[in-house]
Amino acid sequence: MTSLADKLERESATMKDSGKWYNMIHKVHPSLRTVNEKEYEPSLVSVGPYHHGSQNLQEMEKYKVRMLRLLLDRTNKRLEDYMASMRGIKEEAPKYYASDITMDGDKFVEMMIVDGCFILEFLRIVRKKPDRDKFIFNMNLLMPDIFRDLVLFENQLPLSVLSKLFELTKAGEETFAELINEFVKHFCVHYMVEKEPLDADKIDESPHLLHLVYMTCNKSTRRVKPKMITRDHVAVVMESDNERKQSDQFIKSATTLEEFGVVFKKAEKDAKLRDITFTKNGGVLKIPQLMISDRTETIFRNLVAYEQYIQKSDFTDYLFFMDCLINSPKDVELLRHRGIIENMLGDDEYVSLMFNKICSYVVTEISTDSDFDELCRDINEYSASSFNKWMAKLWHQYFSSPWSLISVFAAFVLLGLTTVQTLFSIISYTNPKQS
């Protein structure tokens, strides 16, 4: 059992580096986990110590060992060579993981080597390097689940460890940045975000793979403003989703906003995920397209869990905004018809429930000086206008379909003819023709 003195010494070492806490790999906060626990659990492959040894993941362990065996043969090296190069990482474990690691030194190093080499070889397979069929049976079937597990908050390996293993195993002229960008590219294509590769410096500064996905999904051309918040505000957001939606800093649902005159449009193709804009002149709300798949909730929940520890709320703000827009399947249907949501699941109710629950128990920063607050204020001011509401009602009631337009046009023609006939009748009455 670890003594109090040992714990205090560990905390003292951790606190020496002010930025270390944010770079460490934590466990998901229990309150977040209770909402949908399975979205934080690996389904196929464990990476790192937190889920190592889980019974439901043992089948994949033999494939990890197979990959390491093939890698040793390809590089003409022995396991002892890798162990000698990586032995020092056990002492550095407190720098990487926030929770205590109970594994002994050699076991910990072996786990890091096996898991790290698995990730590197998997990414090489994705890049279609030779002998890809030797590694894993039915790769096309397993690939989506592997990618999903590699982005879980608790299922991370320090990128510095991956970089060190890469130098021991690199093949030909490949670079670490190229291999890591293969991982990032998968999420760019899948979630319709910018496909611009990350440069080597950004990769070197990143603590783990999840952070790379976070940087990619969180890109925006919107300016970042400082946020100030009190503890009372945090409590309100965390404890009451209904109170949050009634705040002046949040907006009505998509279907309600459309009734109030807001026009929904898909943003330009090169827009980043958070590049949401609203034009007061015309009430046009442009939102980048988002593809919803069976992996979306997992990715979003783990990005939010990560953001809770790095004390930011940029991506969480985006999800809160979408949560406000989506209160029911009708809201999802509207956004889908406008090209803003591409629902690969075909179930609008599922998407609605996902957004309504994804920010439960999340602590976020509400500020009157944030970009999303300014966006919400503009939308609320526009939708509060009686004239805009009246014009929207007029349009939806009389001009929402071709048949409505034809009916209105026919009514105007009939009114015109009736008016002309009445005028002629008045003229005939006041100026009768001479006999």
Features:
5 strands, two-stranded parallel sheet, 3-stranded mixed sheet, mainly alpha, 435 residues, 22 helices, 4% strand
Average pLDDT, to the nearest integer? 80
Helix content range = 55-70%
Sketch the topology as an H/E string, one letter per element. Answer: HHHHHHHHHHHHHHHEEEEHHHEHHHH
Beta strands, count? 5
Form type: elongated
What is the gyration radius calculated from CA atoms? 29 Å
Structural class: mainly alpha
Strand order of the biggest β-sheet: 1-3-2
Low-confidence stretches: 223-246
Percent of residues in beta strands: under 5%
Outline the biggest β-sheet: 3 strands, mixed
Number of helices: 22
Distance between the termini: 124 Å
Detail the topology: elements first, then pairings.
Blueprint lengths: L3 H12 L4 H4 L6 H4 L24 H18 L3 H8 L6 H4 L8 H22 L12 H12 L8 H11 L6 H15 L9 H6 L3 H9 L13 H9 L1 H6 L7 H6 L3 E4 L10 E3 L4 E4 L2 E3 L3 H14 L4 H12 L3 H9 L3 E3 L4 H10 L13 H13 L2 H13 L3 H29 L5
Parallel strand pairs: 1-3, 4-5
Antiparallel strand pairs: 2-3
